[in-house]
Amino acid sequence: MRPGRILIFLLTVILTLFILSLPIFDLRSGRDASFYHDTDSVLVTDTASQDLIDSDTAARALKETEPLPAQSVNTVADGNIAGITGLDTWVPSEAIRDSLADGRQVRVLFYGDSQVEGDRETSLLRQKLRAEGGGTGPGLFSPVMPVMYTRSYVIRSSTNWKRYTLLDYRSGVLQSNRLGPMLALCRFTPPDERLSARSFATVKVNPVPGADSAVATYDKLRIFYGNNYDTVLVGIRSGSSLVDFAMLQMGEGPMEYAVPLPSVSDVTIEFTGCNSPDIYAMSLESDHGVIVDNVPVRGSAGLEFVMTDISGFEEILPKLGPDIIFLQFGLNVVRNVRAEYHYYEEGLVKQIEFLKKASGGVPVVVVSVTDMALRVNDTIRRFPNIRAIRDAQKNAAERCGVLFWDAWGSMGGSGSIIDWYGHQPALASNDLTHLSNAGADTLAARIHSALLTPGNTARLSSGERPALTDSVKMIAVQDTPAPEKPASQLIKETGMRETGAGDNTGSDGTGDQGDEGGGWLFSLLRYHPDQTFIFTTAGFWFFFLVVMAGFALMHRKRAMCHTWLLMVSLYFYYRAGGLFIILLLATTLLTYLTALATGKARTRTGKRFWLVSNILILLGFLAYFKYAGFFTAALNSLLGTSLVPHDIFSAMSNNLFGTSFDVNTIVLPVGISFFTFQALSYSIDVYRGRMDPVTSFIDFAFYLTFFPQLVAGPIVRASEFMPQMKGEYTITRNEFGHGLFLILQGLVKKMLISDIISSGFIDRVFDTPALFSGFENLMAVYGYGLQIYCDFSGYTDIAIGVALLMGFRLPLNFNSPYKASNIGEFWKRWHISLSRWLKDYLYIPLGGNRKGAVRTGINLMITMLLGGLWHGAATRFVVWGGLHGIALVADKIWRWLFRREKRKRRFARIAGIILTFNFISFAWIFFRAETMQQAGVMLTQIFSSFTPGNYGTVLMAYLPVIVLIVSGYIMHFLSVPVKEAYRGLFIRLPLVVQFLLATIVVLLLYKVGTDALQPFIYFRF
Which end of the chain has fewer CB atoms surrounding its CB within 10 Å, N or C? Predict the structure, then answer.
């Protein structure tokens, strides 16, 4: 098939997609060019479980909000203290102190979205308030919570419990929307259904290890319920002791059942009946002291209170007797509200007035939205609407005469989430939306310092923003006394770029210069740190069109063709890695020259000198960029020194281009591990005499920098690639179909499966495993196994397909690796090019299996430990490699013990596949976790805190993710004949049909793909 026809085909596909996308771009540009979300897809980042309300309902709430009459709003003209209103008439700290002095119970009711779930923020508030006022227990909870495992307690409920929310009322499952203060109710039998036999349901509450002793002691149990029209028995146990046994009162309610507890540390609540009552809430507390309730409403915009029957609040809130009600919502608002913020403000006024009326005038504190950002490809984008939403929240609080505390301003305003994430320890999660536990504690300590600490009001009255006290700072840095990192340093370390909506600045902050003096051309060609350049971006495919245009013109003249492909490959790397192109050029030139010298050397000593010189130079580059920081930190920790690594490329950029990179942090160049190993394989093969050195620098440079596989493999050997550079360009019609199939398959793996399950579930669990049940952690572990496979093999599929369209055959890199029945077979199927490299250039030179069983085991361990270290300069990668090394040694021993067995039976092979798959999956924990401590928490959750309470609720909450994970594994485990059948069917289709399918697939990916598109996992290895 001629290159010109391939070019026309690709041009037709891309132009068609561009034309079809124009209406979509027009629709999205009306909102915001940087955040084009449909209301049905907004909830991915913060509402994966859809616990209470989806984005469509939130949008409906905003649309249905009407301006309130002026006389219904109490406007506070004065008393604005650093965004805190109402302090002239009521000071929270003084009110709490007075209540405690009188011996009364103080109750703080804290509502929030997923930012506070898991008893985050409230755990530290509770601890600080109880340091003065005492009190026990965690406060309010439900039999089924959005998060069953919190920082303070764990709930283990029987599987027949189900949580019902406003969505169930809207769908008709619930006949009444009287949900109570939890904005939900729980039942152990379906609504309006009486079972023929009694149902038995349990709720067990235990403190988590290390929980505050006051939270871990339960002195009193209260159950708020209603709509009880059956004989329902309740038993309260602590351990094996029966504390109380009673029959719940019948009636519509709400009613309360209360029983004192003898200061127990665990409690089991047992229900028996044919028809469950509506359980509105439970509470473990004390009669005196401080109670702080954590009421998470995941996915909420904070506007849903008025959608419920107010009687559910009016009848239960007085029983609870809260002294303060906190409202902290906004994550989902940021995702939905792009303009007309006054409608959101009016809606929030309604919610506040609703709570004031339902509680009988209990003071309300509105805590503003926190800062957040969005990851798109390799870019960090700030939300431009947070300030307007914060202002709307402040205005609503002032109009209602309630307190307002500016969390966003306290964090540092726009972009502060990046600084918080860069702190040691991190104060924000990896998703740049939620706070980490340390960050939640820091924010809670600031709230306590600003509002709940006696004596602080005088300082605040000057209009200052609440500042960190020394005690608050200790929360943030108690583990690692390192200063906070500026945003620029974090972005530099992670290889990400930061932009805001409408940003038009380049890396030097000067911005584009328009069309003056050819500035548009310069802007097109230069490196843009705020733009990602990978296979899943439109920019790459326009680039590939240009590549194919030049290739079609020059393919008959191989020298010109290789020069053209070298130039575009270098441009590709420059667009992906910027100034690090100097390192790639240095590696290319040094390897070319030392290989020539090796080939010309007449003695073995001379050949060895040039080989060793090249190895030392290349490994020196790799060690400097990849391991200097790791070993410097280890040396400082061991010797107590304060050595600081120095980034020469940052210094060079600062001197040449006037940038302001931090020279004390070394950034890992894109693809350095891959092109270094590829260069080493060439040098070693020349030394071994397996190939002659390449005399043409253009040809060698083209081989080493060929753009499809440059930054993430496969690792291509010169002996396999160089022969393809000779002769005429050839590609059959079937090869074209195969290449196109691989490209589409890779895009589906990456964009449809890997990115969605990552952003929708897996990243959230790995970032904060303690907030999820063992079952959810296990789901994330198996999900990550599929994510990394689809991500990496997806890149490889696209790379092989793109190269094939130019007539170059790259080696197979994946072969259904999870079908392996032992760990040795796995490494013959996973990242095959790396496995071959480690075997031929490390394992065999160490002696392989030629020097006895003990030496074989040692060689395997060394190879895998170094292979783990190749993946990253961290202890967890070494542990990951060590686990695989131990498994390979164990496999060798097993084979030796049963070496007479020639053929595995089918059952034995299936058992081997299951065992190997689970071992690999659990080893991935160390590969993916940010720290060894995080990996330990995840393993603890899986093996000691597994039950989520209601498996059905959890599975339905993450249904789209679960469907993708299951579908992905089904596709992976399909037999080879089945895969060959549908691949062959696509290859044999007419060009017109292939064109239609390619267009449909890409449009589908564009429509359903997540905006939080992840960079390829191996992009910076």
Answer: N
